[in-house]
Specification:
It is built from 34 helices and 20 strands. By secondary structure, the chain is of the alpha+beta class. Helix content is 48%, strand content 13%. It folds into 4 domains: 371 residues, no CATH class; 78 residues, Regulator of K+ conductance, C-terminal domain (Alpha-Beta Plaits); 87 residues, Alpha-Beta Plaits, CATH 3.30.70; 85 residues, Alpha-Beta Plaits. The strands form 4 sheets. A 5-stranded antiparallel beta sheet has the order 3-2-4-1-15, with no helix packed on it. About 1% of the residues have low confidence.
């Protein structure tokens, strides 16, 4: 083994490790692979960057735009609904029509787009036929995967395999070369699902379409009553006169206020600006753990609310100002997102924005160019921060301008406080109450910086920046009275003005990985998230801190006007056709014409597919079928960067001989059993790899091995390459195998084992079909 081959195999092994462990994003892994190959000289700089101009990559993003235009103009939706009307109510017939519709559409549209498009339609059918969607959604996802096998543009692996053949000097697969095998797989998959698969699907009470009042199944599915409680605001409470946002019921107690009852008045889904009054009864949802911690305990005792600033800031710390410049990477981020304290061990005391000063709740302020941060820290820490070239660093000249006199308090941690023994992050003084701890002073006079590891002790004096009212809110929350009431009638929450709606993250969402708190969800959308359904179970507490994942189903409660607006939010897919954004039906004929003009030259061989699809995508935007911003949103940029970054690895495997080495290893292991055994081996490798790695990456990695194996055996490469294309998309064993599987996981209430139970026998059957059909159309 040469040094070059060892280097390629090492990079390959590390890439596979990162894909499996998900320690890094898949697109970042691909870019690191690209960089490593170029820096080690395993590929030339031109080869390293060739993936971005590769026709397969160009075609992938262009087809995504075309697919989005067909969906936005209502072409695909109309076809889907028209066909599904013929399904009737029998389960077998219903499944057959759903899978045929998804399979046909996936031949010309992105598989994820087809699953997204038909998901609300199938949910609506399940509601009308009183059938659990868990019986219908896995078949929908699997059919969208199998349907993509029928054409060149149906799935990225098909395009990549075709391009690999062209790069090797061989004739590439044409538009419908995949159809015989793909159609056989699709038909076999439908028959399997009708005869066997549907009996393996779970029958759970899963998410129902929510446009009609009284979605009882949905309420039971999320077990809403389990965590509902009535709280009363007592007379003399500091909460009297405060808004819901100021009360911090959500951030501090992790409770969602569903309704407020005031005498005979009821205020359902109150907004963040709703003002509380003594005597109000609050219907809240969530665990009462935080309230029990506060109830009857003195959290903090105010010692001095008007400290002279010269006493406050003559400790072992210094003050300085940092200005956010145009080059700063902090623009558009909050201090919490930057993790400012953890990164620099420096406190931000205030923010000056023009003539305005921001002194509280600084962690959630989105930084802008020109913002000046008043920071406090030890001299050596400030010097480190001052060396950053994208920040204007200067010593403080006028502290009085920040008007901090009324914002700095000295408080004591009493003996009975629940804060005793907790670190500052555990105390949640900043996140929950908006109180920033500047210094900790122990009873013996020792001064401690507010380190994340320091545990608070009884008697500690905390120098805190914040409003006195915020401090009093803590006792107000602890003094809320819990009421014993009969079982809550959830129908009262469903009125003409308020309702429930279930949504899932869109495949193109930019919100994945962010928490509801970071998004300021309630203020931004005017709705409350009362539950999140993830991996087969409902979460109803601490929702603000949960990072959203693709596949999550969110149950929203609020005014119906706000619920309807969710249909136009690109980050969410609403599971109700009535709430979805209306399609541009008047543009449907144009979209069909453009799609025809794209396909005909490719089928006839007049234009390369990359050029034809790019022109078609431009025409879709030019004619108004899709807006440019919508076109950008349709592109799965992570997939584009993933493919572009991994293609140089395929080049390196070919040129260094690593692919030949792996091909020889495969031949020595099973080559003696004949080419059919090699075909089976490649199929199993691709199926296994696609459960842990993105299927385009699987195709890129196995394509050179298949070419080398064919050369070693002295057989045609076409059956082996077709096997790699088909098996790379046969990701049936787990929800993480393909985004289409993840998309239906939340709405279907599925668990990991549900996919394996149905997907394992389907994978075996697909293997048998491929082994029998492929040699007929592509002889060895």
């Amino acid at each position: 083994m040469t040094l070059e081959v060892f280097g390629v195999l090492l990079i390959l092994a590390l890439a596979v490790l990162f894909f499996i462990t998900e320690w890094l994003r898949m697109d970042l892994v691909a870019l690191l692979v690209l960089g490593a190959l170029a820096l080690t000289g395993l590929v030339t700089p031109a080869q390293a960057l060739s993936g971005f101009s590769n026709p397969a990559v160009v075609t992938v993003w262009a087809v995504l735009i075309l697919s989005g235009a067909l969906a936005r103009t209502g072409v695909a939706g109309r076809l889907g609904r028209l066909v599904l009307r013929l399904a009737g109510e029998g389960e077998a017939r219903l499944l057959a029509v759903i899978m045929i519709t998804a399979g046909v559409l996936s031949g010309f549209m992105n598989s994820i787009g087809v699953a997204s498009l038909l998901l609300p339609v199938v949910i609506d059918i399940s509601r009308r036929t009183d059938r659990p969607p868990s019986r219908l959604l896995i078949p929908l996802a699997f059919a969208s995967l199998m349907g993509g096998l029928n054409t060149l543009i149906g799935t990225p692996p098909n395009l990549l395999i075709s391009e690999s053949l062209r790069s090797a000097g061989l004739q590439a697969f044409a538009m419908f070369d995949y159809t015989p095998v793909g159609l056989a797989v699709l038909l076999t998959g439908i028959i399997f699902m009708l005869l066997i698969g549907r009996h393996l699907l779970p029958e759970r009470d899963i998410v129902r379409e929510l446009a009609a009042p009284g979605p009882e199944e949905l309420k039971e599915h999320y077990d809403l009553q389990e965590r509902m409680t009535f709280l009363r605001v007592p007379e003399g409470s500091p909460l009297h006169g405060s808004t819901l946002a100021e009360s911090r019921l959500g951030s501090a107690l992790e409770l969602t206020v569903l309704a407020v009852f005031r005498g005979r008045e009821s205020h359902l889904a109150p907004g963040a600006s709703f003002t509380l009054r003594a005597g109000d009864r609050l219907l809240v949802e969530g665990r009462m753990k935080r309230w029990r911690e506060l109830s009857g305990n003195h959290h903090l005792e105010l010692k001095d609310q008007n400290l002279p600033l010269e006493e406050v800031f003559t400790l072992d710390y210094q003050l300085a100002e940092l200005e956010i410049t145009s080059d700063s990477g902090w623009k558009g981020q909050t201090l919490r997102q930057i993790d400012f304290w953890q990164a620099y061990q420096i406190s931000v005391v205030a923010i000056r924005r023009g003539k305005d000063f921001i002194r509280t709740n600084l962690g959630n302020v989105t930084l802008k160019e020109g913002d000046v941060l008043l920071v406090q820290g030890q001299p050596e820490q400030l010097e480190v921060l001052g060396e950053r070239v994208e920040l204007n660093f200067r010593r403080l000249e006028d502290l009085g301008a920040y008007q901090l006199q009324e914002r700095v308090m000295l408080v004591k941690v009493p003996q009975e406080s629940v804060l005793v023994g907790k670190t500052l992050p555990e105390s949640r003084l900043g996140d929950a109450y908006g109180l920033d701890v500047l210094t900790i002073v122990r009873e013996e006079g020792e001064q401690l910086k507010p380190d994340t590891q320091v545990q608070l002790q009884a008697g500690d004096a905390l120098l805190i920046k914040g409003k006195e009212q915020e401090l009093r809110m803590i006792s107000g929350l602890g003094n809320l009275e819990i009421l014993t009431t009969p079982q809550i009638d959830l129908d009262e929450l469903e009125t003409e003005e308020t309702g429930l709606l279930e949504v899932v993250l869109s495949p193109h969402s930019s919100l994945e990985g962010k928490t509801l708190r970071e998004l300021d969800f309630r203020t931004r959308f005017g709705l409350s998230v009362v539950a999140i359904w993830r991996e087969g179970r409902a979460y109803r507490s601490n929702l603000r801190e949960m990072k959203l994942r693709f596949g999550d189903a969110l149950l929203l409660f609020g005014p119906r006007q706000r619920l309807k607006l969710m249909g136009s939010e690109g980050d969410f897919l609403v599971l109700s056709e009535e709430v979805s954004a209306p399609p541009r039906l008047e543009k449907a004929p144009l979209a069909l014409l453009i799609m025809t003009l794209v396909l005909v030259p490719v089928i006839a061989g007049w234009l390369p597919i990359a050029l034809s699809t790019v022109v078609g995508a431009a025409l879709m935007v030019l004619t108004g079928c899709l807006e440019m911003d919508e076109a950008y949103r349709q592109i799965e940029w992570r997939a584009v960067f993933l493919i572009a970054g991994m293609l140089p690895l395929g080049i390196a495997m070919q040129e260094t001989g690593a692919a030949s080495l792996l091909g020889e290893g495969l031949i020595s292991l099973i080559g003696g059993l004949g080419p059919l055994a090699v075909l089976v081996g490649l199929f199993l490798l691709a199926v296994l790899g696609s459960q842990f790695m993105p299927n385009p990456a699987v195709a890129v990695l196995l394509a050179p091995i298949a070419l080398s194996a064919a050369a070693e055996l002295g057989v045609s490469p076409y059956p082996l390459m077709m096997t790699v294309a088909v098996s790379s998309s046969a990701a049936f064993l787990s929800p993480v195998g393909h985004p289409a599987n993840l998309l239906v996981m939340g709405p279907g209430g599925y668990r990991f084992r549900d996919y394996f139970r149905v997907g394992l026998p389907l994978s075996v059957i697909v293997l048998v079909v491929v082994s029998l059909i492929l040699p007929i159309f592509f002889p060895f």
